[in-house]
Amino acid sequence: AVAVPAVPTAPTVRLFPPSLVVGVGASKGAPAEEILGLIGTALAEAGLDARSLHSLTSVDAKADEPGLLAAAAELGVPVRCFTADELAAVTVPNPSDAPLAAVGTPSVAEAAALLGAQATELLLPKRKSAPEGRAAMATAAVARRPVRGRLAIVGLGPGARDLLTERARTELRRASVIVGLDQYVDQIRDLLRPGVRVEATGLGAEEERARSAVRLAQQGLAVALIGSGDAGVYAMASPALAEAGADIDVVGVPGVTAAMAAASLLGAPLGHDHVSISLSDLHTPWEVIERRVRAAAEADLVVTFYNPRSRARDWQLPKALAILAEHRDAPATPVGIARSVSRPDEWHKVTTLASLDPTEVDMFTVVTVGNTASREVAGRFVTPRGYRWQV
Ligand code: SAH
Q1: Under DSSP, is residue 261 helix (H, G, I), strand (E, B) or coil?
Q2: Superfamily for 150-256?
């Protein structure tokens, strides 16, 4: 008979990033074994692994101390020393008079650990060695170099899986935390690694979501902040980056925004200069929206309306279309309506500025209005590339 192990053993990978800095204070002639013994017990006490050591640090006066150099050589890490003045400027939990008298700073181990790691907190405060039968000749303290977090702002495209970019897929797999609206998280849940943390929130929590994504990245995590279409278009990128400092890395992954996805369905409506306008007056006063619609009308731009109409906001779209109609030949101007583009309930229609029925428009829809040169050709919405072609 062959014994089958009850728990199959899977290969495990452990990573030891070089993140730990041990500050060392040493009396003249401190033996390497004493320093090594102290570092060993200090790390063990804190549950840390010597394979994650980055460097030993100390004060300039100890730069040639043989025991310190031998200990570092044994551990395979460099020694970095600071001047007494640099160390004296660091606030530490346990300053003392002895090093102040000997080398001119109230702390060597703690101050050197913090300075070397560029950290503000110690993982382990100062410890003394405990040699048998004589006074301790070494002290050590441990700090961790702060990790630099990464915030990926990832556009998921309009819905269909094959309109999600390869780069977006890579970022989703790379992340250890996903932050986004619950419906978008559901859209890509199968692409996530097992065990990844998901922070899904409901509609309306945009600012909170942005802040939470940035905070997690500041803690050193790899965060993916997701949004439909392009995450920078009427979405999370700007509230997040308005909060983010230079202390995190940020990468953006572009996505196919609704206007582009709709355009390919409708024909070629964006062949000349065009603009997007959101009709949501949740964040923008209506007077501002109206001024922009008017400017687009006068400038003869093709206009795509995002957030065009909801149950609570039903008069804005007809009003915006009326403004455009003042500057267009309404019966001859094509208008495209595209709903749930690339999703199972996708629907679209090419109509005109004169005969558009607003009740066919909802919040899952974009509406694209042509310029004075746009035409319907064989049922498709076409905006010629140059005014020269009109003649
Ligand atoms: N970041 C998104 C836009 C968010 S604003 C993007 O780049 O596409 C939300 C509005 O986008 C909706 O009210 C709707 O007008 C539009 N929208 C988003 N996805 C859409 C889709 N698949 N089909 C049609 N319109 C869509």
Answers
A1: helix
A2: Tetrapyrrole methylase, N-terminal domain (3.40.1010.10)
Model confidence at 69, pLDDT cuts 50, 70, 90, reads very high
Structural domain 259-382, CATH architecture = 2-Layer Sandwich (3.30)
Instruction: Give the integer Cα–Cα distance in Å for 157 and 29.
Output: 66
CATH tag for 20-144 (out of 3.30.420.180, 3.40.640.10, 3.50.50.60, 3.30.420.140) = 3.30.420.180
Atom index in ligand 1 nearest the CA of residue 346 equals 23
| 152 CA to centre of ligand 1 in angstroms | 20
Q: Which numbered atom of ligand 1 lies nearest the CA of 280?
A: 13
Distance in Å, CA 343 to ligand 1 centroid = 12
Across the strands, what pairs with 227?
Answer: 155
- Average confidence (pLDDT) over 327-355: 97
Range 187-216 average pLDDT: 88
Domain residues of the chain, as ranges? 20-144, 150-256, 259-382
Q: Which of 266, 304, 311, 365 has the most ligand 1 atoms within 8 A of CB, as the residue to mutate? A: 365
pTM score, two decimals?
Answer: 0.77
Contacts of residues 201-209 at CB distance under 8 Å and 24 or more positions apart, as own/partner, are: 206/236, 206/239, 207/239, 209/179, 209/180, 209/181, 209/236
